[in-house]
Specification:
Length: 171
């Protein structure tokens, strides 16, 4: 008597072997904009690929959005300002960050993808007139909202004052 092949339920994804010998998992995932799209994961063995497939399915089950392509900085920075900075910082800090993002980061780096963004790219952003050089290398540190408040505080500032000003604590 022939045994029937066991099938995955609908929505569980699939794993196939590619021509190059690797395995490919495909799962429909929820994207940040609310739509569903197919996400691919690759592995050398079937088991490795199955682990990646199950991780994607866990995110789907928990309602965690999974981007199918990398966002550009112009897409991510407004999200970061509205969902990370605005709820956690004062209005004046948010306004300063928004201005620096709008005036310096978006025009210079808005087309860069997040995974390809590097330190050299950020250092190429010109400094606003009148700001001092914190690196000592002549190029200066760009007006990046994540390091700006930390660099603008005097050296003798303690941890609590840094946190109040919106900067990261000392390490």
């Amino acid at each position: 008597m022939a045994t029937q092949r066991r099938r995955n339920p609908n929505g569980a994804g699939t794993i196939t072997k590619r021509k190059d010998g690797r395995y490919q998992a495909a799962v429909y995932v929820l994207q940040p904009d609310g739509t569903r799209a197919r996400k691919f994961a690759y592995g050398k063995t079937w088991a490795e690929c199955d682990v990646k497939r199950r991780e994607l399915l866990d995110k789907v089950d928990n309602g965690i959005p999974v981007p199918t392509k990398s966002a550009k900085l112009a897409e991510w920075l407004p999200y970061w300002l509205d969902h990370v900075i605005k709820p956690r910082r004062t209005l004046s800090t948010y306004d300063k960050y928004e201005a620096q993002v709008r005036l310096y980061l978006l025009p210079m780096l808005g087309t860069k993808r997040l995974e390809s963004l590097g330190v050299a790219d950020v250092r190429r952003v010109p400094r606003p007139a009148g700001e001092e050089d914190h690196c000592g290398d002549g190029q200066g540190v760009p007006p990046c909202p994540t390091v700006g408040p930390l660099l603008s505080l005097p050296r003798g500032t303690d941890r609590s004052q840094r946190r109040e000003a919106g900067g990261a604590p000392d390490r």
